[in-house]
Write a structure and sequence with these properties.
mainly alpha; two-stranded antiparallel sheet; transmembrane helix; NADH dehydrogenase I chain L, membrane subunit; ND/Mrp_TM
Amino acid sequence: MNLLFLTILFPLLGFITLAISQGKWSENTSSIIGVGTISASALVTIYIIFNFYCNFSNDVNFVFVQELWTWFTINALCITVALRLDGLSLIMLSVIIGVGFIIHLYATWYMSGCEGYSRFFAYTNLFMANMVLLVLSDNLLLMYFGWEGVGLCSYLLIGFYYSDAKNGIAALKAFIITRSGDICLVCALFMIYDQYHTLSFSKLLTLELKCSSCHIFNDITWISFMLLIGAIGKSAQLPLQNWLTSAMVGPTPVSALIHAATMVTSGVYLIIRMNNFFLMTPSILYLTGIIGSLTVILFSCSALFQSNIKKILAYSTISQIGYMFLALGGRHWDAAMFHLVTHAFFKALLFLSAGSLIYSCRYEQNIFKMGGLYKFIPLIYICFLIGGASLSGVPIITAGFYSKEMIMLKTLANHDYFFLLSGVIGMFLTPIYTFRMIFVVFHGEKKIEPRVCNKITQNLPLILLLLLSTFIGGWIKLPLLTDTIITNVSEVYNYGQIYLEIISGLLVTFGIWLASIFWMDSSSRITGEIIRPRVTEVIERYIVLLCYYGWGFDWLYKLIFIKPYLFITKKLSYSDPVDVIVNVIVSLLCWLKNGLICSENGKLNWYIVSMNIGAIMILIMILIYDRL
């Protein structure tokens, strides 16, 4: 356990080494350093996992804290650089390092020949170091340091192809929107320290929290609300989700890294880590579930109308993170973590498969310009089938089924029927948009001549993730988290597990069948075109467009924030009120100066008259004062 700090140190050293090289080293050298440091962290993580399961796997309250040094001390505030390993951080560490290593290995092939090869691995190494720091930190301030570091690296990686101005705008958009949530997180940190005089998880998680008043807006409520907004911003949930689809302009391995294992799961981790605050504020916890429920439905609909393959997967990520928030709203922390793990597997598989597909199609991303590709790239086709089946929750054989089943069962047992209905609707919509993408790309009429590449650094990561996306990934035993997270599983089975499994299986099968009818081949697409004009004009013009444009959040934020800002700046460019105030003050001083110059003219009679006027004014003031 004492080697825990190496999981951060190795990627950080990789970043420093690659940054010093300034891209002068060969691609082989850069990839050896970039992937080698992550593999070293992976080996340390394997040792830690082995040590944990050999010695502490049955200890629910196991916590290991490694204090490295004191960061700073200001009066009573002492912040130490300390790392915390418990069941929750061990799960996150395993997912981040494991899936991150696979993505790095894949990136050695995908980024080959691209400008900035060394810079790419420098950024991703720094990204990994900050993400590991985020989940291992033993105090909120150190966690926030990693939180902001992840945001900075996402900005650099999203705008990696900086020669295109649109990519820079997309990176800036992601950076600004996530910062709005980060501001709320900072406010939460201030309020926590003000109330409890500590930022240490070891102390905060042992506090017996009590509401300072019976009022609905007490201190703990505000803290939980600010923590929730911070989590929403980083995990791309309603209404701060629209940055994630714009983040697709970065390299595909970056999309896999951000969506699958690291950045978007930070909000889920934060809520579970601070679960004692949320348990004291059931209204905020219920709001978390509401946000997750709406996100599942709305952005499953958005994915259904996209033509860009990466945007389909991006909206899918938003929706699947919504499932985790739905579970958090029902206090099912273990179910949320289980879905986080399985989602990391199948979403990384889908994104990396999409990267191989885009490469084969000469960087074409529109699914309707592809078709009939399953004969030419069979491995990628199989990866899409397994990844799509796991995303859809195909029963028994996929990892996604087991995690979604746990969420739905525990939601049913808790009688959260609104959350249950939202999850069921999502289970119906997910296979439709997923297999719509698969059938359009791999079946039907061939529209593009693919190029085939079978390098081991391309195929080996896909095969590993493919295996983890099957029932193998669904049978992974997660360590116990805390007493508040353990639930009586036998209780859940008394509420009709078999019926829920049958219903979910039927919904998934029906969704795949519908997708096959409309998008399997060219004749089916003609049927879809015949049915389409029957849809009313209102649905065609408004609902479909709303879904396609992500329910208009970009337009709304442009109307509320960007246009007023541009209007104000335009007005200020013509007449700056600050300049006006300064100019008035200057003019007043000049007038006084001119008056003083006139009074000092060197004429004796003027001075005598001035003295007499002053004496008369003083005399008048004395008489008025006496009269009063």
